[in-house]
Specification:
single chain; 336 residues; TIM Barrel; eight-stranded parallel barrel; 12 helices; globular; binds 1,3-dihydroxyacetonephosphate; Aldolase_TIM; EC 4.1.2.13
């Protein structure tokens, strides 16, 4: 796989006015989401729900690709079309979550490291054959009393860089996701500092592991006050802090940055992205790779009648995609 092909895929992922829908919840996480709305977490319900999302009419107007979970990339529509083919036929790039989740970091209470490097080369080879053209690995950085430690940040950055190098070797664009978690009573300045140190460590590790930035996408968290801090930051404050933090840490050669929603409300996630793009021009396209902020409204609607509410739920997915697509251009307004 040439760097040109990786770069082409990366640029297509952040094409103007388009972003990613994250539907890569593990079976444990989707069970939590289904439990929340009273849906039984069976394999068929998971399949039907992912079909609803991926088959949303005209989704590719605003969606360049979707991140799938291992089970999902092996599933098909009710009519027998593999999801990866359905996506490719509709002009969307299949992606795959390849990390194996977070585990306690030995010797560092309250901190976690993401696992999944063992056997990764062979798994990536298979995912490429199944149609995936990009992959995602999520690291989790918690903020609390005396955490994060430098050890935790560096261990996660090292794993992200090892994963990214393997992805590129196998022809997949790595989406590197170091998520600084919103939970906690920290202020916005603390989130800024932690995000800055995390990104510095990540890009140093990517460099050390010979990762080609031209074929890499960053999935970033926004700079926000902790959810239990009692602090309120304006949309402009969040946008300005996030942009400044990214500009001081992320090389301009990166083809694009997409954001996670991380538990923000649907509207806040959209408004923050829109504000950052209005503050441009920026060194890279800024778009979205939202999970909850793309799906919550649709899941709620679908759960009320899973046989009948498919079209209605798809209409809300399309609306969320449209709002975020406009925000990726800095052209969203509340009424839009
Ligand atoms: P959220 O947008 O719900 O945070 O999910 C995005 C994601 O893929 C987290 O890894």
């Amino acid at each position: 796989m040439s760097i040109e092909q990786l770069a082409e895929t990366a640029l297509a992922m952040v094409a103007p006015g388009k972003g990613i829908i994250a539907i890569d919840e593990s079976n444990a996480t989707i069970k939590k989401r289904f439990d929340g709305v009273g849906i039984e977490c069976t394999e068929e319900n998971r399949r039907a729900y992912r079909e609803l999302l991926l088959a949303t009419p005209k989704l590719s107007d605003y969606i360049s690709g979707a991140i799938l979970f291992d089970e999902t990339i092996r599933q098909s529509t009710r009519d027998g079309v593999p999801f990866a083919k359905l996506m490719a036929d509709n002009g969307m790039i299949p992606g795959i979550k390849v990390d194996k989740g977070t585990h306690a970091l030995a010797g560092f209470p309250g901190e976690v490291v993401t696992e999944g490097l063992d056997g990764l080369r062979a798994r990536l080879e298979e995912y490429y054959k199944l149609g995936a053209r990009f992959a995602k690995w999520r690291a989790v950085i918690n903020i609390g009393d005396d955490i994060p430690s430098g050890t935790c940040i560096d261990a996660n950055a090292h794993a992200l860089a090892r994963y990214a190098a393997l992805c590129q070797e196998q022809g997949l664009v790595p989406m590197v996701e170091p998520e600084v978690i919103m939970d906690g009573n920290h202020d916005i300045d603390t989130c800024y500092e932690v995000t800055e140190v995390t990104l510095r460590s990540l890009f140093a590790s990517l460099y050390e592991q010979n990762v080609m930035l031209e074929g890499t996408i960053l999935k970033a968290s926004m700079v926000l006050p902790g959810t239990t801090s009692g602090d309120d930051a304006s949309v402009e404050e969040v946008a300005a802090a996030t942009l400044q933090c990214l500009k001081s840490t992320v090389p301009a050669t990166l083809p694009g940055i997409v954001f996670l929603s991380g538990g923000q409300s649907d509207e806040a996630a959209t408004a923050h992205l829109d504000a950052m793009n209005r503050m441009g021009p920026n060194p890279w396209p800024l778009s979205f790779s939202y999970g909850r902020a793309m799906q919550s409204a649709a899941l709620k609607l679908w759960s009320q009648d899973i046989a009948r509410n498919v079209a209605e739920a798809q209409a809300t997915v399309y609306e969320r995609a449209r709002a975020n697509g406009l925000a990726a251009l800095g052209e969203w307004s509340k009424a839009a």
